[in-house]
Amino acid sequence: xxxxxxxxxxxxxxxxxxxxxxxxxxxxxxxxxxxxxxxxxxxxxxxxxxxxxxxxxxxxxxxxxxxxxxxxxxxxxxxxxxxxxxxxxxxxxxxxxxxxxxxxxxxxxxxxxxxxxxxxxxxxxxxxxxxxxxxxxxxxxxxxxxxxxxxxxxxxxxxxxxxxxxxxxxxxxxxxxxxxxxxxxxxxxxxxxxxxxxxxxxxxxxxxxxxxxxxxxxxxxxxxxxxxxxxxxxxxxxxxxxxxxxxxxxxxxxxxxxxxxxxxxxxxxxxxxxxxxxxxxxxxxxxxxxxxxxxxxxxxxxxxxxxxxx
Length: 310
Description:
37% of the residues lie in helices and 15% in strands. It has helices spanning 12-29, 55-66, 87-96, 111-118, 137-151, 169-180, 209-212, 237-244, 248-251, 274-277, 284-303; strands at 44-49, 70-75, 101-106, 125-131, 158-162, 184-188, 204-206, 218-221, 259-261. Helix 5 (137-151) crosses helix 6.
């Protein structure tokens, strides 16, 4: 694996291999007082985040440090980007300075793909940490890892993805990956929050949350991304919550084994009730924990197993 740009690039064997590696790393570190492996000693990982992030940025940094890599954080405001330097020149500078891997979050869809093209032949790998409304592959992998821990194998499982699908890179990456792993995916959202062409995604589309919950093995609640909205996509936050929020009454509609996920940050009281987010049925903090191990696995497959030679 040379880069990780999209879940569309992962076949079932590759995705399962990443998830298995993450599970092995998690087991290896379990109970250790000092969580440190020598796997990536001498490697340099650079994170470039042009959008705000807590979970993704911190977990990539922790993942790199737990594997003994040198991790350097670059933000747009604190680099030459603030002086007008292009993404291409910044990336080539970092590669020339010795970066083995660049982890990029960018508001423009397709930015990581362009970065990988510009760095072709340099030996520097690229990981997409979220690009616009396009994809977020490591989030989908950590969600799949969490679902495997809670439900076992995903083939034949019915997974509901609920809310603002239109603006969600998390939804897109999860649809691709979950289908690759054999799950059935149901998108539940108002018509205004579904992208054009969604009927070609190979999923079931529904506008009625209550009707879908009794047959769902898991539900992933999506944040309403108001910062990406330019217009009225629903009448009000209250009406959205009434129709699509996961409250305690709706939690009772789910099967006993069903799992609740949320990629964060959560809008408590809108898309998910506080009591649901904090319940034993929710695996939200487990997602964050698994995010570290999944990102360790991604770095391992990129940097410690031959990378582009595979």
